Amino acid sequence: MPEAFDHAIAQFLNADGSRVIGTGFAVSPRHVLTCTHVIASVLGQDARLPIPLGTAFTVLFPLNPNVPPLTLRLHTTFPSVDQPDIHTLEDMSLLEVEGMVSLPYAPRQVLPDSGHHGQAFYTYGFNRHGGSWFTGQCAGVVAEGWVQLQVDNVSDESLNGLSGAPVWNTQANAITGMLVAKRRGNLRSYMIPIARLIRALPLLATLESPATASTPCQMAANQRYKLLKTKLERLQAQYDLETRVEEQMRMEKLIAEAQASLAQLEKG
């Protein structure tokens, strides 16, 4: 696990700084990802209600001594939903750093549909002020397209504060999703896979890949862009009609890959 993983982990406190609310992590030198219910709790409001874009938050990076408390502003957000299904994009928020600060961030990877099952992971979250390390395994996909996690040696209540933490897959050697600890009957931990995060937040696809060192001729690039755009639109239309969970997860991965390729062409 690279040092950048530790250094990228963000802490969200309540308004007066006396209580830990949740976790987040840098996904680029300028952006931090977390759960919407985390920032809603910071504001003391219902996570199902809209939060104005541009709302400012003070964020700490306790494992990175070189980064002071930073002001971040809400860039994109999806509110929490009471009864989500496979098509619902919810409980994800992307924030952007104010000022000339560059954050370290760890690699991310989109896994195939079956790639999550039984995979071991590490994570670090702020269930207490100083934070804690956790390990476990990915149990499998649930109906809304999240991955249920089996966290080792914890009670349900000790998961409080872990929402927004990065999930580091030990086999992939990369972050494969964001942890969500949510009460649906009982408090349980899930992971929003990278493919779904990219579908909700296409900017992540742009942040995922560095600019290419060389650009093909413009005509070929334009043709490839049009083909990818058509493919993406077709996949999104098929996804909206699909009802099988496994097929939906497979299509989410294809959509994320197409979005990443489009973003790379747009940058090139």
Level of helix content? 25-40%
Biggest sheet overview: 6 strands, antiparallel, barrel
Number of E-state strands? 12
Strand order of the largest sheet: 1-2-3-6-5-4
- Write the CATH fold name of the largest domain: Thrombin, subunit H
Helix and strand composition category:
alpha+beta
The low-confidence parts are 209-216
Helix count equals: 6
Approximate strand percentage: 25-35%
Mean pLDDT: 84
- CATH class of the largest domain, named Mainly Beta
Q: What is the H/E order? A: HEEEHEEEEEEEEEHHHH
Ordered list of secondary-structure elements with their pairings:
Elements: H1 3-7, E1 9-13, E2 20-26, E3 31-34, H2 36-43, E4 56-60, E5 70-78, E6 92-97, E7 120-125, E8 132-141, E9 147-151, E10 166-169, E11 174-184, E12 186-193, H3 194-200, H4 203-208, H5 218-241, H6 245-267
Antiparallel strand pairs: 1-2, 1-4, 2-3, 3-6, 4-5, 5-6, 7-8, 7-10, 8-9, 9-12, 10-11, 11-12
Helix pairs in contact: 3-6, 5-6
Protein name: Trypsin-like peptidase domain-containing protein
InterPro entries: Peptidase_S1_PA (IPR009003)
Coiled coil: 218-268
How would you sum up this structure, described in words?
- This protein folds into 3 domains: 3-97, Trypsin-like serine proteases (Thrombin, subunit H, Beta Barrel), CATH 2.40.10.10; 113-195, Thrombin, subunit H; 203-267.
- Helices cover 27% and strands 30% of the residues.
- The chain has 6 helices and 12 strands.
- The strands form 2 sheets. It has a 6-stranded antiparallel beta barrel with strand order 1-2-3-6-5-4.
- Strand 2 and strand 3 (31-34) form a beta hairpin.
- Helix 3 crosses helix 6 (245-267).
- The longest helix is centred in the last third of the chain and has 24 residues, at 218-241.
- The radius of gyration is 18 Å and the shape is globular.
- The chain starts with a helix and ends with a helix.
- The model is unreliable at 209-216 (pLDDT under 50).
